[in-house]
Amino acid sequence: MDRETLASSFNPPEEDAWRTTYNNLLPRWQSLASSHQSAIPISISRVNQVDAGRLDIEMSAMLKEQLVKVFSLMKPGMLFQYEPELDAFLEFLIWRFSIWVDKPTPGNALMNLRYRDERVVEVREKVRTGLEGPGLTVAQRIWYCVATVGGQYMWARLQSFSAFRRWGDSEQRSVARRAWLLIQRMEGIYKAASFSNLLLFLYTGRYRNLIERALRARLVYGRPNMNRAVSFEYMNRQLVWNEFSELLLLLLPLLNSSSVKNILHPFSKDKSSDSTVDDTVCPICQGKPTIPFLAVPCQHSYCYYCLQTRCSAAPSFRCPRCGEPIAAMQRHGGSVNNISQKQ
């Protein structure tokens, strides 16, 4: 009897109650999940961004060098007249096959970087890592080409034209003089803005130049992992050679070149070759001795000024022909003059 009463008092929930409870708890669950997925601050290496720009410049210079070799047989100086057009053409090729097709430039690819539209990222606020976010839009790519290719070409042509027409030296034509002053002022403003942008870039790590800042095109990492293309063994050899070359550059100015030559002289040539040496010329200036003097004790003939200056500079000066130290100098048919006394 008790079981029947208990079963009759228990009523199962309605079917819509589960759905209603789910709809009420879903917004709370989504808000809780989004709170745990807050944006993670990312930091893109500033050195990698700067190196990527330098690599792009080196790539453009290599292409320009190869293209100049093609026109090496043409009239000299003709290609120099069209140098701005050549630079613009190479920059357009790099832009066409990299940024226009939503791919990184050669320098950015080597540094594992790509461009990202920062405007969309700030609106969505769903980016948690540097790998997320869309690339540049078509409008951003076109404006990038207009600013980098077209802007640099027009500025280079304007400067060359104003320099050729001598707008800065013109005193009679006030319009040309004003245009020249305007160009100089614009250049100064651009340099000041670039310097300010550089300080901001060093502080925040965003936007290397003014074009990237104006387009809101930020460099971020392209892949989570980047394979090292250069082996550690090769890097170690390069580091050792770099340190060795710097050590040589430090020590070579401290060495006396004449003493080193005298030490290596017995190993550099055969004794038989001494017979072919002309004794009638000065071993220092390789000319006919002027005011001839003899070195003591080897008795080789020198110019007075050549022998005196070398002995004054290096008291342990040795004869370049025989390698013996010169203790004194003697005029032909005259008395012996001690070097220490002459000094």
Characterize the structure shown:
- With 343 residues, the chain is an alpha+beta fold.
- 57% of the residues lie in helices and 7% in strands.
- It contains 14 helices and 6 strands.
- The strands form 2 sheets. A 4-stranded antiparallel sheet has the order 4-3-5-6. Strands 1-2 form a two-stranded antiparallel ribbon.
- Helix 5 runs antiparallel to helix 8 (138-165).
How far apart, in Å, are the first and last alpha carbons?
137 Å
Please state the overall shape, judged from the principal axes of the Cα atoms: elongated
Tell me the β content: 5-15%
The average pLDDT value, as a whole number, equals 76
Number of strands: 6
Strand order, sheet with most strands = 4-3-5-6
* Radius of gyration (Å): 39 Å
Tell me about the biggest sheet? 4 strands, antiparallel
Number of helices: 14
Low confidence ranges: 269-275
Order of helices and strands: HHHHHHEHHHHEHHEEHEEH
Structural class by SSE content? alpha+beta
Helix content: 55-70%
